[in-house]
Amino acid sequence: MAIISALDIIKRFNGNPALDGVSLDIDSSEVVVIIGPSGSGKSTLLRCINALEPIDSGKITVDDIVIDSHRQRAHEARLKVGMVFQQFELFVHLNVMQNLVLAPKIVSRIGGAEAEKTARLYLDKVGLAHKTESYPSELSGGEKQRAAIARALCMNPRIMLFDEPTSALDPEMIGEVLEVMRQLAKEGMTMMIVTHEIGFAREVSDRIIFMDKGKIVEQGPTDELLDSAKHPRTAKFLSKVLK
User: Fold this and answer.
1) What is the pLDDT of residues 163-186, one digit of tens each?
2) Between the CA atoms of 101, 104, 105 and 108, what dihedral angle is there, to the nearest 10 degrees?
3) Closest to 167 measured CA to CA, from 190, 204, 141
4) Is pTM beyond 0.90 here?
C-alpha cells in the first residue's frame, strides 16, 4: 500500500508550472530515485510532499494524512517525513548535539535526556559519535551532511527525502554520505532521492523516475529504465549522464 500518494499535482511559480500534473505512488520501504535536468521539478516535488511548498491543485497524501492548506494537517504530515537538503541547513551557532536535540525537544516535546540518548544513537549510526560538541564550522562537508541526516532521523520519520544530498560535497566526501544512505535503504526506510549519482541510484533504488519540464516523462524498475529507456527524452538524458 502506498505511503505517499500524489494525484495530478500542479505547482506554479509566477504563473509558470514547476509541477504540471504529476501523479505517483510510493510504497512503504520503497527507494525511489528522481532524475532529470535542472529545473525539471524534482526538488519542488519533494518540497510539496514535505508540505514546505503549498500546491495549487491536486492531492498529496502522506501516511494517510491529506496535505492541504490546513496547517495542522501539514504539520502532522511533516512529522512523519525527514528531509535532507543540499546545503545541510545546520544552525551554525549550535553544536552538533544541540542541532540534533532542538526539534525533538521543541516540536515533539521530548525530554532532554531522551532526546540526547536518541541523538547519540544516530550520531553513532552515521559515524559522528565523537563530534557531539563540534560546531558546523569545524566539520567537513561530508560530516555536515551526515549530521543533517542524523538530525532528520532524530524525529523518527517513516519517510526520508533527500534533495541532491551530495551536490555540495567534494568528490572524496560523497562516498561517506552515500554509505549512510545505503544503510538506511538496507534497513527498509522509505526514501525518495533526487540525485545525479546514477551509479548509486542503480545500486540502492527500486525504481527511477525521470522528470522534465514539470512532468514525469518515464518511470520504471531501475535497471530496466537505465539500460533500455523507452522515451526518447529519457534516453537522451541518460546518454549524457552515463558517459
Assistant:
1) 999 888 888 888 889 999 999 999
2) 180
3) 141
4) yes
